[in-house]
């Protein structure tokens, strides 16, 4: 998924502020250490984060943490673009006025690691028995590792959900059933569609990944492009056919922002997207399907049901921080078993198995959604896009055959062209990674 655009629209994950919000700091990172040497006891621990429901929730408990460590905390809440720009400027300059960083392990971690911007947390997470690193869900935990080093700790996770209209029938258990059910329900003259989903070239790639995996395909294999393999072409063709024949017109221009309202307004029977957006369909201000929406696991394909289960946001420590011990205390506290359970009970899906196994933490979710999330948290894969330095460029290449399929064009020739382009890209990307 295109994480920036998702973050901007998920009501369940809070509205992003147009400008920065500071907790405990007066101005942007005000009072944070910017020089050499050991900061004074009056220098706050500085956290840079996305303005997100998790950040908003954790700051409500910040006084508890400040009392614990005896140091003030300055927490900057930024829009996605502001956060990316701030990291680029400050970390390129080896600035010491960032201690804890909220990062996207699948979008930025590989690049940040390559640049030497992230502190190695391996000894801290594995050497602290009370922290219970093994309690984290396997897929998000594995995605926290780059170059055999733990460089981040997941705090928010997400999976795909099959949103469906319960008044139109049961949820399909397989992709074949989804196609068979969606096609006859489509009535374009009546402005009703059997299926809606993302179709925009780059933005659709992450959500399409579950279709790819469930067909037995992958983005790469043994370090080489795998998008022209038969299984991958079958996944391209399936998704293209589903949107071409059962989806709305103009699907190739649809990102989350365009697709989600179509289902929310009762104009589609099925919709696959992240579980994080579920409250959109329960909000009477924007939804007409509150009473009829159902939540089901991703349908099984030829290779079974293989949805993603990713860490959408994680905590890392800047390699340039002068307060690394205090930064780790914050990461440990904010991602502890107790805090994860507390926040998950408020509707924020965390990354610990102990939280997912506790019925009390799931009470805030609709019952069928909670069951779906539990199931997919166990079987999901920890990645939903190519694992490369230049993620945006890779998604653009991989998305080309998707567009062809949605337009009803032959997919295989386009997939072979994209495969050749992606193969060249991987060579360049690996050179940058090694250089």
UniProtKB/TrEMBL annotation:
Q: Which InterPro entries match?
A: Bact_solute-bd_prot1 (IPR050490), SBP (IPR006059)
What is the protein named?
ABC transporter substrate-binding protein
A Pfam family cross-referenced in the UniProt record is: SBP_bac_1
* Organism of origin: Nonomuraea aridisoli
Q: Which SUPFAM superfamilies match?
A: Periplasmic binding protein-like II
């Amino acid at each position: 998924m295109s994480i920036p655009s998702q973050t901007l629209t998920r009501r369940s994950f809070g509205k992003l502020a147009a400008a920065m919000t500071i907790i405990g700091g007066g101005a942007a990172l005000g009072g944070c250490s910017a020089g050499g040497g050991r900061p004074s006891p009056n220098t706050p621990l500085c956290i840079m984060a996305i303005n997100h429901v998790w950040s908003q929730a954790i700051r409500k408990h910040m006084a508890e943490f400040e009392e614990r460590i005896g140091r003030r905390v300055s927490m900057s809440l930024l829009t996605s673009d502001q956060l990316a720009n701030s990291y680029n400027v400050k970390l390129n300059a080896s600035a010491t006025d960032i201690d804890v960083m909220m990062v996207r392990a699948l979008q930025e971690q590989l690049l940040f690691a390559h640049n030497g911007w992230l502190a190695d947390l391996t000894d801290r997470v594995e050497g602290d028995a009370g922290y219970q690193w093994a309690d984290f869900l396997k897929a998000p935990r594995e995605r926290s590792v780059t170059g055999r080093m733990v460089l981040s700790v997941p705090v928010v996770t997400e999976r795909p959900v099959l949103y469906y209209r319960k008044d139109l029938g049961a949820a399909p258990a397989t992709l074949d059933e989804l196609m068979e059910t969606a096609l006859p329900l489509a009535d374009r003259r009546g402005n009703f569609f059997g299926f809606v989903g993302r179709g925009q070239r780059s933005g659709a790639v992450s959500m399409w990944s579950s279709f790819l995996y469930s067909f037995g395909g992958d983005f790469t294999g043994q370090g080489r492009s795998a998008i022209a393999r038969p299984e991958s072409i079958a996944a391209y063709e399936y998704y293209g056919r589903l949107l071409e024949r059962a989806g709305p017109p103009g699907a190739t221009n649809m990102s989350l922002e365009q697709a989600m309202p179509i289902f929310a307004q009762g104009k589609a029977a099925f919709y696959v997207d992240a579980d994080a957006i579920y409250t959109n369909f329960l909000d009477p201000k924007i939804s007409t399907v509150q009473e009829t929406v159902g939540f089901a696991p991703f349908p099984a394909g030829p290779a079974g049901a293989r949805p993603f289960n990713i860490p959408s946001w994680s905590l890392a420590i800047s390699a340039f921080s002068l307060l690394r011990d205090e930064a780790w205390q914050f990461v440990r506290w904010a991602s502890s078993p107790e805090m994860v359970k507390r926040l998950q009970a408020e509707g924020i899906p965390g990354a610990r198995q102990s939280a997912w196994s506790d019925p009390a933490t799931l009470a805030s979710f609709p019952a069928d959604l909670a069951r779906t999330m539990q199931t997919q948290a166990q079987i999901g894969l920890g990645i939903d896009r190519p694992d490369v330095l230049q993620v945006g460029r890779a998604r653009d290449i991989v998305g080309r055959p998707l567009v062809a399929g949605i337009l009803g064009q032959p997919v295989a020739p386009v997939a072979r062209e994209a495969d050749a382009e992606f193969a060249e890209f991987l060579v360049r990307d690996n050179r940058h990674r090694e250089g």
